[in-house]
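NAD(P)-dependent alcohol dehydrogenase: structure tokens wanted.
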Amino acid sequence: MKVYEIGTQQGLSSLRAAERPALQPGPGQVVLRVRAVCLNHRDLLMLQGTYGPRRPETRIPVSDGVGEVISLGDGVQGLSLGERVTCPHFATWLDGEFHPRWFAEDLGISRDGWLAEQIVVPADALVKVPDSMTDTQAAALPAAALTAWNALVEVGRIKAGDLVLALGTGGVAMLALQLAKLHGARVAITSSSDDKLATARELGADFTINYRSHPDWAAELLRQTGGDGADIVAETGGLATLATSIAAAAPNGRLALIGALAASPADGALQLQNLFGIVGKNLTLRGITAGNRRMLQAMVRAVAAAGMKPLIDREFAFDDAAAAYAHLKTGSHLGKVLLRVHQY
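Answer:
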């Protein structure tokens, strides 16, 4: 079977194709034929060697995907050959609270991921994909969408009428927009591109802010909303945007700290005076990863029931994986970048 490996982790050129024997499942495992995968920002960081410690050069990357069951290991029940399934990228985090031990079984990072014609995963981790859901819908859910779900539902306790603030127009932010609208919430979103903001409005964004035109985008949000702050902030920028996110938050707001996509923390870094904003507004700041199987199963049901279609910026063939990574690195994408592994 064909796979991709992260190689020497010196940049995009490190991605390399390789051939391996077909996989065999162990007890309690399932082999999937991979149908489609989606890329995430951390896939770029892996190739650059900047996502935690360097990994073995033979590691297969990518954490988002959907596949069909082609082989069952001993003791596996409740699954049939040919069923389409997906799973959280923390393959052993099935339910309950987060623990750092889940990092030991992180698809595409600490164990082989989806960028291959086949993948082997624990059967207990799998979530069945409804017939009404396409591969394109399902491939975008296990990492970026599950992170957004965790931020909005688990941390944010989202309810209809809440105001959700999403930073940027990458995978997590656009999925946060779509999931928030699914829950009947209002959404504000930021970008440096008016064209991307126009698309966000087409997807239901209630308030859009170009942060180049409005460097103090917290003040602009308050102006547009008549003084309302954000009840939930999906904070993907990191230290460079956290102070402004605190200023943009409503009293009793919940900030889910997800990533660090913004460049320099220089002027926006969290300062002592921001403690007044945190304490004075009774804010909750919580760092999150993605989510567990229970969360993924709930999200799959919600997405299927609503017919939500994650925004896909562009599709690539499996043989064009390097081009897909290069496109993601440009930052010009809006939503997710998808690769078709097996065509149906």
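Residues 7 and 57 are 4 Å apart (CA to CA). The chain has a mean pLDDT of 94.

Cheers.
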